[in-house]
Amino acid sequence: MVKLIRFELRKLMQQKSFYICMAMSLLFLSINFTVSQKLSTFMNVQSLTGLDAIQSTIGSLSYTLILSICIALFITDDYAGGTIKNIFSKGYSRTQVFFAKYIVSLFGTLLFTLVCTLFSFAIGSFLGGVGNIGPRFLLTMICQILLLTAYHTMYFGFSIVLGKSGSAIAGCIIMPTVFTLLYSLFDSWISFSNFTFKSIWLDNLLGNLSKAPVNSTLLRQSALFSLIYIILFGTIALILSQKKEY
Fold this sequence. Notes:
This protein is mainly alpha-helical. The protein has helices at residues 2-14, 16-43, 50-56, 61-81, 84-89, 94-128, 137-162, 165-189, 202-209, 216-243.
C-alpha cells in the first residue's frame, strides 16, 4: 500500500495537467484581484486585505471548476490508458487502489489550495495590507478545508466511477449543478420557516464561508454537512468502484 501511494504521488508530481490547472487558477485569481481593486477604487471602499483574500480564495466558481478538472485528469489517467490492469496484476486490490488514489489526490488538492492561498495572501497584503485576524478566522479556515475535502470526495467519486477523462470532467462540472437544482426543487415542494435544502449544499456553504463575518451557526452547519458529504460520496464511490469492470 505504501509503495502504491508513493507511485501515485510520483505520478501526480510528474503530471503536467496538475501544474497547468494550478497556473490557470492563479491566473483567474489575478483577474479577480484586478477587478476587485478597480471596483474598490471606483466605489471608494477599502481593498481586500491579505487575510480577507485567504478567506475568499476557494469560494469562487472558477476555483472549484479548475480543481474538478485537475482531479478528474489525475484519477482517470490509469483507467483511460489501460495501465490500471498492470497495477491490479501486481496484487493490489481494488480497495487499496481506491484509497491510494484518494489519499494522493486529496494531498494534491490541499497542495493546490495552499499555493493558491499563499498567492492570494501575497497579492491581498500588497494591495490592502495584511489585515486583522477575526475571532472565528481559524475556525473558518478549518471548515473551509472540510468543505474542500467534501468537494474533492465528490469529484474523486465521479472520476473513479466514470473512468474516462471526458465523462469524468463532464460529470464533475454538470452534477453539482444538478444537485443545486434538486435542492431548489425540494425547497419549492417542502417549505420550512427557518430552513432551506439549498442552504446545506456545498456551493452555498462555501460561498457563505468566503464572506466575513461568519457566525457560529454557519460554522457548525459547514462542519456537520461536510462530514456527511465526505462519508456519503466516499461510501457510494467505494461501493460502485468495486463493481466496475476494467
